[in-house]
TrEMBL record:
The chain crosses the membrane at residues 264-287. One of its GO terms (molecular function) is cytokine receptor activity. Belongs to the type I cytokine receptor family. Type 1 subfamily. GO terms for biological process: endocytosis; growth hormone receptor signaling pathway. On growth hormone (GH) binding, forms homodimers and binds JAK2 via a box 1-containing domain. SUPFAM superfamilies: Fibronectin type III. It comes from Callithrix jacchus. Residues 151-254 form the Fibronectin type-III domain. Its main location: membrane. It comes from the Eukaryota. This is Growth hormone receptor. GO terms for cellular component: external side of plasma membrane; extracellular region. The gene is GHR.
Length: 295
């Protein structure tokens, strides 16, 4: 039931009041109030959606930013500006002083950016969103818990090997750490997860996380095209960052057997073994003949 229906019912209730007694009015009013109850939850969830934190992320363990949802307000009341306050829980000081967000601009709309001057790694933060002086959302974390590195870059691959039959190939995939991650001095230790699939497949195959920035991929089919992507996370953390750009791998078709099925392989073996077997038999035959001659 929507509002218009409700108002109509109310109007009818009012007009019917002129004719009927109190009992009828009471009955109608109770029906109306029930309708109001059933309309109200919808109104609440729809027209006064409060802003909420969506994500806090540190790409390199030196700065971080937090984002929140827009306030949805179809109603008459202006919710007022949304403000973010933060406090660092300092064990020594023991006090909690709330300060306002240092930078609402740099990380985009509905966000707060903490540059390196405002970022301490080992001290837990609490942040809260306020609207009209009231807190609408609050969360606590330490910066090392919200690390999500930028994507790895410069993906490339080299050919390692093509199978005897020319059907399968092994390649080595390489990439570089996200440029803003300080891995040289060990400030960050990144683990990488490589995923790959045939171009036409929908499911990515996942490899186990590794610390190095290159990994071999074995037994790819030379007649297929592959897609490879890599993402990284701070070691021992749960949260991966975004995936790198996709690397397309199209293998060179070098062998004359290319595109033929694997059954070439046993045939090749049978022919090779057959020829060598015949040769051995021939030698044995000639050798024994010679021996007989000498005797
Ligand atoms: C309002 O809520 C109803 C039901 O809960 C939903 O179907 C509708 O999409 C919502 N409208 C908006 C604008 O959120
Ligand atoms: C961080 O931001 C503050 C205020 O915007 C500025 O004074 C300070 O220089 C910045 N620090 C760094 C390292 O950029
Ligand atoms: C990948 O490496 C090859 C040579 O090894 C180079 O020519 C090519 O530009 C590289 N591709 C990218 C995207 O860096
Ligand atoms: C090429 O593949 C063959 C068989 O799979 C293997 O024995 C050989 O070691 C590989 N060579 C290289 C350089 O990877
Ligand atoms: C992917 O599938 C389409 C048809 O569905 C085909 O034309 C195309 O060659 C396939 N691409 C690869 C790389 O297998």
């Amino acid at each position: 039931m929507d509002l218009w229906q409700l108002l109509l019912t109310l109007a009818l209730a009012g007009s019917s009041d002129a004719f009927s007694g109190r009992e009828t009015t009471a009955a109608i009013l109770s029906r109306v109030s029930q309708s109001l109850l059933s309309v109200n939850p919808g109104l609440k969830t729809n027209s006064s959606k409060k802003p909420k934190f969506t994500k806090c992320r540190s790409p390199e363990l030196e700065t971080f930013s937090c984002h929140w949802t827009d306030a949805v307000h179809h109603g008459l009341k202006n919710p007022g500006p949304i403000q973010l306050f933060y406090t660092r829980r300092n064990a020594q000081e023991g006090t909690q002083e709330w300060k306002e967000c240092p930078d609402y601009v740099s990380a985009g709309e509905n966000s707060c950016y903490f540059n390196s001057s405002f970022t301490s790694i080992w001290i837990p933060y609490c942040i809260k969103l306020t609207s009209n002086g009231g807190t609408v959302d609050e969360k606590c974390f330490s910066v090392n818990q919200i690390v999500q590195p930028d994507p790895p870059i410069a993906l490339n691959w080299t050919l390692l090997n093509i199978s005897l039959t020319g059907v399968h190939a092994d390649i080595q995939v390489r990439w570089e750490a996200p440029p803003n991650a300080d891995i040289q001095k060990g400030w960050m230790v990144l683990e990488y997860e490589l995923q790959y699939k045939e171009v036409n497949e929908t499911q990515w195959k996942m490899m186990d996380p590794i610390l190095s920035t290159s990994v071999p991929l074995y037994s790819l089919r030379v007649d297929k095209e592959y897609e490879v992507r890599v993402r990284s996370k701070q070691r021992k953390s749960e949260n991966y960052g975004e995936f790198s750009e996709v690397l397309y791998v199209k293998l060179p078709q070098m062998s004359q057997f290319t595109c033929e099925e694997d059954f070439y392989f046993p045939w090749l073996l049978i022919i090779i073994f057959g020829i060598s077997g015949l040769t051995v038999m021939l030698f044995v035959f000639l050798f024994s003949k010679q021996q007989r001659k000498e005797n």
